[in-house]
Structure formats: C-alpha cells, structure tokens
Specification:
The chain is α+β, with helices and mostly antiparallel strands and 49 residues long. It has one domain. It is 31% helix and 29% strand. It is built from two helices and four strands. The longest helix is centred in the C-terminal third of the chain and has 9 residues.
C-alpha cells in the first residue's frame, strides 16, 4: 500500500487511478482533490513524506 501524501490515507497501488510522478517518484491519491492539491505544490508534500 502507498500513502496519499495529502491526507495520509492508504492507497492500493494496484487499483489506484490517481497518480502523479514527481522527481522520479510516483505518488498515489485517494481523490482528485488530493492529486490537484499535490500538483499545486508538490515540493511541500513530497518533502514531508
Ligand atoms: Zn487523499
């Protein structure tokens, strides 16, 4: 399982449809809003991982 960096929910990589690649690492999201939030400021959330 992966962790949604926005809300810290667990996301199954096998079924996740919402993903974003930042600096070579794939991030998984539970909802479109989480993905949008991450992409608006990826540096902030990626560093907190
Ligand atoms: Zn989320």
């Amino acid at each position: 399982m992966a962790i949604d960096p926005i809300c810290k929910m667990t996301v199954d990589e096998k079924t996740a449809k919402l993903t974003s690649v930042y600096k070579g690492k794939t991030y998984y999201f539970c909802a479109p809003g989480c993905k949008k939030k991450f992409e608006s400021d990826p540096e902030k959330y990626a560093s907190g991982n």
